[in-house]
Amino acid sequence: MSAESAEIHDRLEGFDTTIHAPNRLRICALLDAAGEAEFGLVQKRLDLSASVLSKHVTVLMDAGYVEQRKAVRDTRQRVWLRLTRRGRDAYQGHLAALRAIVGPPDPAL
Amino acid sequence: MSAESAEIHDRLEGFDTTIHAPNRLRICALLDAAGEAEFGLVQKRLDLSASVLSKHVTVLMDAGYVEQRKAVRDTRQRVWLRLTRRGRDAYQGHLAALRAIVGPPDPAL
DNA sequence: CTCGTCTCTTTCCATAGTGGAAACTAGCCG
DNA sequence: CGGCTAGTTTCCACTATGGAAAGAGACGAG
User: Fold this and answer.
1) In chain A, which residues from 47 to 86 place their CB closer than 7 Å to nucleic acid strand C?
2) N or C terminus: which one in chain A shows less Cβ crowding within 10 Å?
3) Residue B14 DSSP class
4) What residues does each domain of chain B span?
């Protein structure tokens, strides 16, 4: 099981464990849809504690998938989050990998 | 953030961490598609060590998602795996949850 | 009957991931 | 200055995960 295994078993290319973690998947999905979102909004939307969200964002930034922008709203500094180009690609690649795993949606359903 | 949070944040109903784990997701997808599959075939298809596959199968059985059937092929006892009804439902529910998270596939792509 | 093989299963172990709580930091207001 | 808000980081306990190796059950060979 070596040379041909790549031909035989399901491909995992694009599968990204950094993104796959449930909360990070939700974060990426939200940012992908929103384009850019405020930290607090993400936190509320996903119902995460600030510390947990902050840590996941750190992981995503370390991977180069997310970047921050600081801006003032209501006299207060807030952090805006968005996917980098690389993050968007990785996210889309991960979705493609998931689709490859689960197969095409059954049209009969 | 309590009563209305269920209305606000993304729904996670159906999201099943037991199934979400990468290798278990692949196992469930394979069994869902195959109906029933031999342990060895699953192992080869997914390129997993016997011990790892066995442990994941145990987890899925403990959850009531998979059942085994022992049968002889080529003079040797082999284990056949399949999703239970409950497992199939949980798997489909998880896929639905994933779709709810990532949103509808972009037709423009 | 005993031995070796094949097919899983279980145990042991080391490592990494995860979240909650709380302490900490930075900017702004009064 | 003290207090408040918005994030960040640290501390901690717990769970998950995989690899390697030992076990266990069934079967054929001799």
Assistant:
1) 48-52, 55-56, 59, 72, 75-77
2) C
3) T
4) 3-102
